[in-house]
Amino acid sequence: MIRETILLVEDNADEAELAELAFARLNAEYDLQIVANGEEALDFLFASGRYCDRPDYRKPALVLLDIDLPQLNGFDVLRALRSSAAYHHTPIAFLTTSDENADIEEGYALGVNSYLQKPLGFDQFAQLLQDVSHYWLKLNTRVH
């Protein structure tokens, strides 16, 4: 059985490592891929740049996207994905520390499916990752 891929776009190496630990601890049945900036995210998602020859190209079933990213921010990545027919129905969740109402409003206006604030503790972070992946990949009915 092929495991579904979750793409985490996170520039903070410590938070990316926490996500890896959380998925390992939860025995997650998903393949977690992590990229560090918006430009790399688009290369990964559209199999271009350094990912153009990736032999196991599979479109992620869920994208977890930070807002404050180098090169292209999360809003720019979201715009690019929502303007592509290939990613029109892919669940995209902002996973961020920002609680700015303007960021929340802009995210939803651009088509983000969920806006999640990163909790401070590891256990809460692990639970959030489990809950969001379970909801979007198990409970939610998706277009295939």
From TrEMBL:
Keywords carried by this UniProt record: Phosphoprotein
Keyword Hydrolase in annotation: no
Record PTM 4-aspartylphosphate, positions in chain: 66
Annotated TM spans: none
Gene3D superfamilies for this protein: 3.40.50.2300
UniProt cross-references to Pfam families, sorted A to Z: Response_reg
Coiled coil (residue ranges): none
Listed GO biological process terms: phosphorelay signal transduction system
Domain Response regulatory: residue ranges: 5-133
InterPro entries: CheY-like_superfamily, Sig_transdc_resp-reg_receiver, TCS_response_regulator
PANTHER family: RESPONSE REGULATOR RCP1-RELATED, TWO-COMPONENT SYSTEM REGULATORY PROTEIN
Name by which UniProt lists this protein: Response regulator
